[in-house]
Amino acid sequence: MDCDKAVRLALEAGGEEASGSNMGGSQVTRQFLVFADKMFAPSEGFIQNAYKAFDLLKPVFVGSELRGEPPAGMEAITLAKLHGPLGEPGFKQLGLVSKKLKVRLADEKPALIHAHFGKAAAYALPLARAMGLPLVVTYHGGDATKKANTRNSLLRVYNRRRAQLWRDAALILPVSEFIRGELAKAGCPADKMTVHYNGADADRFQPGKKSKLILFAGRWVEKKGVDTLADALTRLGPKLNGWRVRMAGDGPLKAELAGRLQASGVNVELPGWIPAADMPRHFAEAMIHCVPSRRAATGDAEGLPMVCIEAMLSGCAVAATRHAGIPECVKDGATGLLSPEGAAEALAASLERLTADPEATLAMGAAGREVALRDFNLETQSRRLQDLLMGVAKS
Length: 395
Fold this sequence. Notes:
Rossmann fold; about 40% helix; about 400 residues
């Protein structure tokens, strides 16, 4: 039994309540289940970060496997040993919830289930039914846009349960207006949806001593538009004299694009994958951050890339595309410059404008931080998420 639960039970035995942010208060800290099938994946830190400011609800993570260590103070329950005779396939494919699983999770006295990504929500749906719990679903991007997720199919669990999931969910939280629109086009009930933006930690992401550095950080895959950026940089060539380009990350497109960039003579640094803990110093140094995302051939699209928010909090001007939720964050001409998806010539023109006038670019970065502090501050967004969950929590 964890320490927090022991304290709560001791207080309950004495006829008192365990309070949230201040012991002796009137509010009770209640637990809820966070269903993330692959828990604490290094690229999905935004999931656990979303609960940073919670004081009335405490998350207990549940999923099929741990991809990383739970942060201090967070509990995680791996479901593998709790399933019945048919194991994980019986749970995921057939919706079988064993008595052992139900009893173990009921021991946490959860008030609701919050599932991240549509596929995980489809797995969590039979569990929510079996336990009589409200189910909240956050859609982050490709889970709402990929062709594989939007077509009808009896072979895929998500597609098979999608309509029932939307009917049964107590609340659906798209991470941008763009994702809300994509879900609505697919038939998701409008009255179930509330847009809730992710936030980034303003204490971690702050402007530093800026240099003439253009930064890209992300996977080298089609959706991230890294090929568009490579083409834009090669078009600029000598016009980038005095500027450095740092392109962090890895992926299947890297070998070809890195060779093309180096052959063009662009002064490009390729540090590979940078741990999340080290990213703030890179944003702090950069004057310009590039987010050239586009919809992939599979339909995969962004929700609202976290790097936009992190870069803006760090005082970077953002050179980005009019893709997905990016225009909801980056204000064209004020906090950065937007160009059409996949348009290398237009992205090159944006970068040329930004590099030609560093003072104006710094002013855009300062304006971007103000927008991010107002609309995408993790503390504010975390408190709002708690309010949304409390609104549907089981009494």
